[in-house]
Amino acid sequence: MRKSIALIVTVVTAAVFVIAFAVPAFAAGQEEAVPGVTDDEIFIGSTQALSGPVASIGRPMAEGMQAVFAHVNNEGGVHGRKIRIEIADDQFDPTSTTTLARRLVERDGVFAMVGSLGSPNVLAIMDYLNDNGVPFVYQGAGATELAVPPKEYVFPFQPNYLLEGNLMVQYMVEELGHERLGIVYRDADDGQNAYDSMMETIELYDNAEIVEAVSVETDATDFSTAIGRMQAADVDGIMTVVFAPQTQQLLEQAYEFGVDATILLSYANADQTIIDGVGADIMDNVRTTAWVLADFEDPEFEPWKWYADYVGEDGAVPNAFGVAGMVAAELFTEAVRRAGRDLTREALVDALESMDGWNGYLALDVTYRAYDPTDNTSRLGKQSMYVMGVQDKQWYPVSDWIEYREP
Mind listing the pLDDT tens digit for each residue in 12-24? Predict the structure, then answer.
């Protein structure tokens, strides 16, 4: 049972919507009311897959946000205001995401949207929020369109697929010396973005080539054709952009077919559940990209204490998706702190744009620049990643930080 804390969370769905009477007030020193801001509260919203096909991602991500905001509120909030988040369950359905986001903004009057999940979902509401001047801070998604071209009120942080595809090729060629690469990617925008980036980046090298690429349906369970084509092309490395549960299915079938090429997974798979789901024996030649660097074995690490306190379980630590939620909350909290007591949406944007290599506990190397529609780096947020392999049945780093290289 969870401990009683100062965080208030209302979970809503598209079918049942709970009205929160959070009436904007005049913040100190302001002439006009700011939506979601009162003298003692900042009211924000988020959409998450708390149920449905990817609830195993959405629920821990929501929990991670809640844990950080609970800690912040128990410490007195930010500039005397506590943060209240209302989480809407969109079940990973972009149509529901759109409906719920509009309700959170237009009916409930949230100050900002924070930490929403899923590329198709956040892309469905990105322009709406930007056009209405509602800050959209951190998305649990890697869609390139979030950052390129930049949007004034949209602040992605997770590495996008343009960046990840670039770094995956760098690692395979420069770190492992692979020369014949293959790609298995989802037949969706995220997979296509990564594929395009890989094909562009491989042009940097004279000693390597992409010899095979296979797109797979987002609900596919049989990967025998893709695996067969990789083997027929004699690849020594396979870069993949698929997510659970397809990841486990692909790895199990590759093992059964005797694939010995290095398999490099997208960072959405940098979680212990992937190893536990297939067994460590299958993971000998598997790597994954990653961007959160923290010691999960250190019980004294401050964010783990916040999380354990929130869930009411000594020694509990979040999984990778929970960490993503914690990063979203940490990023938003720092921006509010920088914005000062006279909090407005514009002040929040200015505060985010002031971050230049900022490091929190979990949010590392955060960089934004002043909004410039011609500068595709002004909203990237994160521009480096590293790679992990499996040792003693757990993920561990096998590379240094890898920086984006312009093709």
Answer: 333 333 333 344 4
Dist CA 126 CA 321 (whole Å): 21
Question: Mean pLDDT across the stretch 243-259?
Answer: 96
Q: Which residues pair with 61 in a beta bridge?
A: none
Q: Are 78 and 333 in contact (CB under 8 A)?
A: yes
Quote the CA–CA distance of 318 and 338 in Å, as a whole number. Answer: 27
Report the candidate in 285, 286, 262 with the shortest Cα–Cα distance to residue 208: 262
Q: Which two tokens stand for residue 354?
A: 């002031």
As a CATH number, domain 161-290+386-403 is 3.40.50.2300
Residue 27's pLDDT band, with cuts at 50, 70 and 90, is very low
Q: Which of 185, 197, 189 is nearest to 247 (CA)?
A: 185
* pLDDT, position 16: 34
**pLDDT of res. 31:** 53
Angle at 38 between CA 37 and CA 43, to 5 degrees: 45
User: Which amino acid is residue 311, in one-letter code?
Assistant: V
Domain extents for the chain? 9-159+298-376, 161-290+386-403
Q: Any idea what DSSP says for residue 106? A: I
Q: pLDDT tier at 365 (50, 70, 90 boundaries)?
A: confident
C-alpha span between 58 and 49 (Å, rounded): 5
Q: Do the domains spanning 9-159+298-376 and 161-290+386-403 agree at the CATH topology level? A: yes
Q: Helix, strand or coil for residue 19?
A: coil
Amino acid in the structure at residue 320: A
Averaged pLDDT of the chain: 90
Q: Give CA torsion, residues 305, 306, 307, 313, to 10 deg.
A: 60
Residue 395 main-chain phi, psi, to 5 deg: -70, 140
Region of 155 on the Ramachandran plot (φ > 0 left; ψ -120 to 50 alpha; else beta):
beta
Tokens 């067994």 appear where? Answer: 279
CATH of domain 9-159+298-376: 3.40.50.2300
Does position 210 have pLDDT exceeding 50, yes or no? yes
